[in-house]
Protein: Thermonuclease family protein
Amino acid sequence: MSPLGRRRVRRWVLFAVSLAAAALVVFVFVVPLVTDRSSGVAAGVPSPPADAELIEIVSITDGDTVRARSVDDGGVLLGDEDEPVRLIGVDTPEVRPDVECGGAEATRALEDLLPVGSRAWASSDAEPRDRYDRALLYLWTEDGAFVNHALVATGAGVALEVEPNSRYADLFASAEASARTADAGLWGTCH
Structure:
């Protein structure tokens, strides 16, 4: 084979190897990111239960409290009026009367997950209301992202177990441990 022919072969081999490497990078790194983001569901995190009800977010109070109204008649929320909803299993820094470290960030995290006007799937636990008459709920975005878990997993809040509402307490504790180890959110900023 002539020197010119060998150069062409080398170029084609180099091109084929480069193409294969690029395909491998896309397959290993990009495809999982696109898949996770498009479904909204993280691996090992539960989807909304079959009995979850659709609610509409009316306002965001802080990182773990919203005001919402029922889309369907009755159920987890009472009547047609909007009412306060406290997310079960997560506690975020306060924004009232004073803003605590991470409070504004936690509120923004919840606003990003559940913008005003969006709809969410809601499910209660053993005790449906707290002493302030707020509905106690687990919330999922319409595409299935578990909001309570996401707040803990990103370090926007900490896991908070208040019996008897502890259906996902182990999941939240594990998410908190991972966030703490990674110095995510308030773990890297406030502690």
